[in-house]
Amino acid sequence: MTARPALEIAVTSPAGARAARDEGADRVELCAALELGGLTPSAALVEAVAREGLSVQVLVRCRPGDFVYDAEEIALMAAEVRSVIASGAGGVVIGALTADGALDTAAVARLAEAARAPGRPVDITLHRAIDQSADPVAAAALLPSLGLTRVLTSGGAPTAAEGRETIAAMASAAAQVQVMAGGGVRLADIPALISAGASAVHLSAKTRAPARRGGRWVPLGAGGASAERDTHFVTDPGVVAEARRAVDGAAPFPPARPN
């Protein structure tokens, strides 16, 4: 028997989680500030999304920018991990690098330990920090020893489609870990990514929310966005439904990795 490829949708709200659930996603990754690449959401947001019924994997990232963290930032993220698990997360999405581009195994181990501290089963995903590492395949090979569940990766390339060969190598190097393709994933890319060895696919299925403002508009911050662009992203249920069909229609792969 072959394993069914999983579909994970990045969401920022309970409404996004409902859209993902209703259109067939297997789980969601919850974050705030998707426009910044994702940051740790509030405990209240985690609680609200957990009530929607899907497994919720919560991104823990204390700031935008690189993934090289100092001791204070790592301590903060360990506290955030404990907070989101207490708020109902089924898992956390974490990552850290050293200044020379290696996986920061000490930091990852500390964050993973914080996730497991309550004593209930949790998923632990290494996020796309691995794509900024000096050697994504070597970094992936370390994940089983750290007890991680899965890795989200574009194969070190700008998009997962471009990194397909590296994704295949990562799947071979870390056979006990679910390799999840993510990063600029288009619907047309999904069959090839699964054929390459990805046992899950991750996408945001996002669309820009229509502006609700009325009256005078004043730009906030230094970005200089227009009134039409100064908004946020929401989950497009139609894209989730199409992604589910694409995943289900892809060629199956050997059941070598946990889901």
TrEMBL record:
Key words of the record: Cytoplasm
SUPFAM superfamilies: CutC-like
Keyword Cytoplasm attributed: yes
Entry-linked InterPro entries: CutC-like (IPR005627), CutC-like_dom_sf (IPR036822)
Pfam families named in the record: CutC
Primary location: cytoplasm
Localization in the cell: Cytoplasm
Superkingdom assignment: Bacteria
HAMAP family tied to this protein: CutC
Family named by the database record: Belongs to the CutC family.
Protein name, entry field: PF03932 family protein CutC
Source organism (scientific name): Streptomyces camponoticapitis
